[in-house]
């Protein structure tokens, strides 16, 4: 994984789209996203066979565009379908165990403070997600918006570590996140709901 892979990190699940999610993903890939995470959440989340088939279809779309395909939370599925990596939070399995299971793959970790950042870096994470930077509509159990202060601190403490900001990021505030030291922005709604994804993605860079 290159730090520039984090530039425009699109995250999506079926609950995030009114349109066909696969059409949204293909349009986003055509429009220049640099990384994709399948984050299947919510009451109507796909499960079992339907979830795996959907994940495989997303994976093959990403392969067509040579874009890294990451699965949120579900380490077992990521291993089973040979995804490019996983993203895990603080409540998931210990990082050491995930790192062992996914040698050579991308492991991203959500961090919210200096202690979590230190443990993620020491534990072999390939990148960290810091947020929510702004109020988010996409994560029901999100912590309060933290602004860019912790992201700036993390960048100062870890000048070369891959960091992506997440949470309520739009074309109107992405620059602030990048100026604070993020390598890129992770976005759900701003891309899912965009009427011109090429323009939106260019304005997130
Ligand atoms: N999914 C995420 N992706 C990122 C990324 F870095 F990729 F931008 N950062 C943070 C999260 C949030 O991860 P988590 O805290 O486990 O919550 P959830 O499982 O609801 O997503
Ligand atoms: Mg998670």
UniProtKB/TrEMBL annotation:
Q: Which domain of life is it from?
A: Bacteria
Q: Name one GO biological process term.
A: thiamine diphosphate biosynthetic process
What is the purpose of this protein? Condenses 4-methyl-5-(beta-hydroxyethyl)thiazole monophosphate (THZ-P) and 2-methyl-4-amino-5-hydroxymethyl pyrimidine pyrophosphate (HMP-PP) to form thiamine monophosphate (TMP).
Question: Which residues are recorded as binding 4-amino-2-methyl-5-(diphosphooxymethyl)pyrimidine?
Answer: 37-41, 72, 110, 139
In its UniProt entry, what is this protein called? Thiamine-phosphate synthase
- SUPFAM superfamilies given in the database record: Thiamin phosphate synthase
Provide the top EC class: transferase
Q: What is a single molecular function from GO for this protein?
A: magnesium ion binding
User: Any idea which positions bind 2-[(2R,5Z)-2-carboxy-4-methylthiazol-5(2H)-ylidene]ethyl phosphate?
Assistant: 136-138, 168, 188-189
The UniProt keywords, alphabetically, are: Magnesium, Metal-binding, Thiamine biosynthesis, Transferase
Q: In which pathway does it act?
A: Cofactor biosynthesis; thiamine diphosphate biosynthesis; thiamine phosphate from 4-amino-2-methyl-5-diphosphomethylpyrimidine and 4-methyl-5-(2-phosphoethyl)-thiazole: step 1/1
